[in-house]
Amino acid sequence: MRIEVLKSKIHRVKITQAELHYVGSVTIDEELMLAADLVENEKVQIVNINNGERLETYVIKGEKGTGEICLNGPAARKAQVGDIVIIISYCSIEKQEAKSHKPIIVFPDQFNRLI
């Protein structure tokens, strides 16, 4: 049997931009993507600490080292610049394998940069 488990998360990152008139997605600094083992177009869940909103979207690669976290399209209505969010990815693995699985958790600094 396969189950879904936490693959990785970027914990408490700040929204730097929200672009309503854009095809929907979230743009993430490439450094953060690499650290969290995220790939472009991967499905993610975004949880907004400030207002409790949750949404699912896909990842677009942002410029490396900028700290960019931009909600695009309709997702831009779910957060404001400055809101703190958690970006979560999941994977499907065998239940037995899940018992020893270790997710990747990234803790960026206040400027969305790796510590």
Give the SSE order as H and E letters. Answer: EEEHEEEEHE
Tell me about the largest β-sheet.
Answer: 8 strands, mixed
Task: Determine the N-to-C terminus distance.
Answer: 37 Å
> Given the structure, what is the number of helices?
2
Helix proportion of residues, in percent? under 10%
The CATH architecture category equals: Beta Barrel
Q: What is the structural class?
A: mainly beta
What integer is the average pLDDT?
Answer: 97
Number of domains: 1
How much β-strand is present in the residues?
over 45%
Gyration radius from CA atoms, angstroms: 14 Å
What is the CATH topology descriptor?
Answer: Barwin-like endoglucanases
Unreliably modeled segments: none
Oligomer: single chain
Strand order of the largest sheet: 2-6-3-5-4-7-1-8
* Structural shape: globular
CATH C-level name: Mainly Beta
Compute the number of strand runs: 8
Secondary structure elements and pairings:
Elements: E1 2-14, E2 17-19, E3 25-29, H1 30-35, E4 43-48, E5 54-62, E6 69-72, E7 84-94, H2 95-98, E8 104-106
Parallel strand pairs: 1-8, 2-6, 3-5
Antiparallel strand pairs: 1-7, 3-6, 4-5, 4-7
What does this structure look like?
By secondary structure, the chain is mainly beta. It has a single domain (2-96), classed as Barwin-like endoglucanases (Beta Barrel), CATH 2.40.40.20. Helices cover 9% and strands 47% of the residues. The chain has helices at residues 30-35, 95-98; strands at residues 2-14, 17-19, 25-29, 43-48, 54-62, 69-72, 84-94, 104-106. An 8-stranded mixed sheet has the order 2-6-3-5-4-7-1-8. Strand 4 and strand 5 form a beta hairpin.
